[in-house]
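Case study 2.
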Amino acid sequence: MPLPYYKKYPRDFVEGTIGMPLETKGAYSIILDMIYMQDGELPDDPRYISGMLGCSVRKWKSIRNELINAGKLYAQNDIISNKRADKERESLRKLQHNQAEKGRLSNKNNKLPETTVKPARVNQNQNHIKKDNTNVLSKEKRKKPATPMPDGWRPTDAGIAFARKKGMTDATIQNEVQKFIDGAEQHNRKYVNWDAAWRTWCGGWVTYGEQQAGQKVASIPSIQRGRSSFLDVIRDEWEDSVNNGFDDSGQDDGSIIEGGFIEGH
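Prediction:
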């Protein structure tokens, strides 16, 4: 079957024709095309080939002898061909044969009746191990996303009790809750656990409470002195630098990290 295209090796051609005249190189290239076009059955007919090349019969015979002597072409049984062309055509035939075989096997398999495969018995020990692994994965703690303050948020009874334990009176708790809510809304803050954030706020009140405000206000930059207290400044600094979330364990002791910022968990 004639090939519509074939592999060409530019480096081999250029290096293999060094020293040949231009007309010989051109004729050789066309002859190769003709060999592939006729599936290796190019007739060794001087009149036919010279007509295809557009040269005289004498000229073609001279070029033919030159290419044969250089080992580029060979003539046998009134056929002129090329050794690499023979190999390429043989490789193509093998490829086509293999593809045809695969196609036949595929069609044969499609005609086979469907069979029901029984499920393999699972070793009970292996099944137990898989269940144990599943349980371990299900128990792993996944980090929850931080969310804005829920509408109508107020500290839980446990949060109120925690504030009282830190020394806040009911009036102070009411005042601090409002500051906590206002700050959250003003700065669009987000936390994983708002109850834990409230407990951390209470821890900050213990360290930077109103009883120390008079000693600290003088050190606040003038641009910030318009705020109600040093506590507001410290809490704003903390809220801007703390992580966007606490874990949901409820374990928060309101501790202070070095540098004056309240530590988030």
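Confidence is low (pLDDT under 50) at residues 211-230, 241-265.
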